[in-house]
Amino acid sequence: MLRPLRNYSNPEKDHSNMKKWIVASVLFGAFLLALPQVTQAQDRIRALKVAFITDKLKLTPEESEKFWPVYNQYEAEHKRIRQKYRPDQDINTLSDQEVERAMLDRFEMEEELIKLKRDYFQRMKGFMAVRKIALLQRSEQEFNKELLRRVQETRGKK
């Protein structure tokens, strides 16, 4: 004799499970709809950054052609290093030993980032004036400040 796969004796429980599935489906759908918007925003910010830095450094077309692939690689490595050392927990919830380890990790991260900057400085020196490389960090900071200002301005209007 075959047994039923499911016990239909409790319709309230089935209704509750159905609600959970519907809510989960709606949330997942909303997440999928939001992904292109996030990607579009990231692409727009990226385009603004490229234009901003290109303008501030007064890159020639030849310099741009060489600079941007190297800079993109630098940014990817910079992000990888920062994520590698990202703390898992809030510092206020850690023991003193864990806080000390987090501080030592932070120093290691900063050392890796300095090494990365030195390496890419040497690479860029091969095709770009040192003065332009020196302006790069300031231009990045100015762009980030301007981006933050615009975000705050936009949020203030809502």
Query: Main beta sheet, described?
Result: none
Indicate the low-confidence ranges by residue numbers: none
Overall domain count = 1
State the helical fraction. over 70%
Q: Globular, elongated, flat, extended or rod-shaped: what is the shape? A: extended
Instruction: Kindly name the structural category.
Output: mainly alpha
Q: How large is the share of residues in beta strands?
A: under 5%
| Rounded Rg | 25 Å
Order of helices and strands: HHHH
User: Total number of helical segments?
Assistant: 4
Report on the architecture of this protein.
The chain is mainly alpha-helical and 158 residues long. The protein has one domain (23-157). The protein has helices at residues 11-57, 61-84, 96-125, 130-157. The longest helix has 47 residues, at 11-57. The radius of gyration is 25 Å and the shape is extended.
Task: Give structural attributes.
mainly alpha, single chain, 158 residues
Write a concise synopsis of the structure shown.
With 158 residues, this protein is mostly helical.
Topology diagram in text:
Elements: H1 11-57, H2 61-84, H3 96-125, H4 130-157
